[in-house]
Amino acid sequence: MLSPFSILKKENGKFKSLDLWQQLKEGGDDLSWYFAVSTNRMPAKYLISKSIFCNITDLAATTEERLWEEHRNLTEIFLETWKEVR
Length: 86
Known about the structure:
By secondary structure, this protein is mainly alpha-helical. It has two domains: 1-42, no CATH class; 43-86. The chain is 65% helix and 0% strand. The protein is elongated, with a radius of gyration of 19 Å.
């Protein structure tokens, strides 16, 4: 009986062998991050961003400027984290 992991590995092998990936490389589109995510070698960006917590707890009592400031701060943290993961 095949284990679920060997089946998954076999399915990933089929996915990796798709001609699409070679065509994209030849065409100059580097989608290596997305390929790594699709074959479970890297986490998706939304999973990285999900691990970063916002310091604002009461959205109704926060000013728009404070929201934009937090957005800038969290964007910087996300980009640093993503760079470390890559």
